[in-house]
Amino acid sequence: MSEPLLQLEGVHTHIGAYHILHGVDLQVAHGELTVLLGRNGAGKTTTLRTIMGLWKASSGTIRLEGREIQGQPTPDVARQGLAYVPENMGIFPDLTVRENMLLAARAAKREDQIDVRRLEWVFGLFPAMKRFWQHPAGLLSGGQKQMLAVARAVVEPRKLLLVDEPSKGLAPAIILNMIEAFRELKAADTTILLVEQNFNFARQLGDQVAVMDDGRIVHAGPMAELAEDEALQTRLLGLSLASHQ
């Protein structure tokens, strides 16, 4: 088997006096979408933030393409090809969509330096970004802000995209649009680690799944296997995917 793109081994994270991650072992394969599931407070967001260096691992190893990245400053981690879309989206509301995108395109100082073909591809994923190009991001709807958050993350090619609950609070029609966008990203060989509470969303997109509980990975395997096993869903998550159609 080929080496995973991302690998966590025995990762512990403390936040102040709180011990959040208790030896997380996780692998993310090249070109696949891995879904990280678990109840609220299980440690999913802490895992993403620890990978990005926003919170420091207390111990353990985080490798990207075989190279250790734990302990590196977040900008250095990002320069190695990682992008993070937080649950709160992290957009700049007083800046226009254009200005938000330009800030994310690190190789460009001006709009005309953004890769035109890449930008048109992003517009294909999220047409609203082209329509509201000169609008302040703070005036966008919740769904449009989420689209902008993902669009910023992929305005340049990335090795790995970390996304925290992209469907949270979105209307069903916007969720369908987001599903199609992530399918396009997968087709473009984008590797994604996705935290998600909408299990139907997760089932439609996931190649692999890892389930967290109390700061540990308690299950990992193909998403299709978990989707077909209601007893396993109930044991791991306290409910079945069938109840979230």
TrEMBL record:
Residue stretches making up the ABC transporter domain: 6-239
Any GO molecular function: branched-chain amino acid transmembrane transporter activity
Top-level taxonomic group: Bacteria
Keywords from the UniProt entry: Amino-acid transport, ATP-binding, Nucleotide-binding, Transport
Family annotation (SMART domains): AAA (SM00382)
BP GO annotations: L-amino acid transport
InterPro entries tied to this protein: AAA+_ATPase, ABC_transporter-like_ATP-bd, ABC_transporter-like_CS, BCAA_Transport_ATP-bd_LivF, P-loop_NTPase
Residue runs in coiled coils: none
Gene3D superfamilies referenced in this protein's UniProt entry, alphabetically: P-loop containing nucleotide triphosphate hydrolases
PANTHER family: ABC TRANSPORTER ATP-BINDING PROTEIN, HIGH-AFFINITY BRANCHED-CHAIN AMINO ACID TRANSPORT ATP-BINDING PROTEIN LIVF
Family to which the UniProt record says this protein belongs: Belongs to the ABC transporter superfamily.
The protein's name: ABC transporter ATP-binding protein
Taxonomic source organism: Mesoterricola sediminis
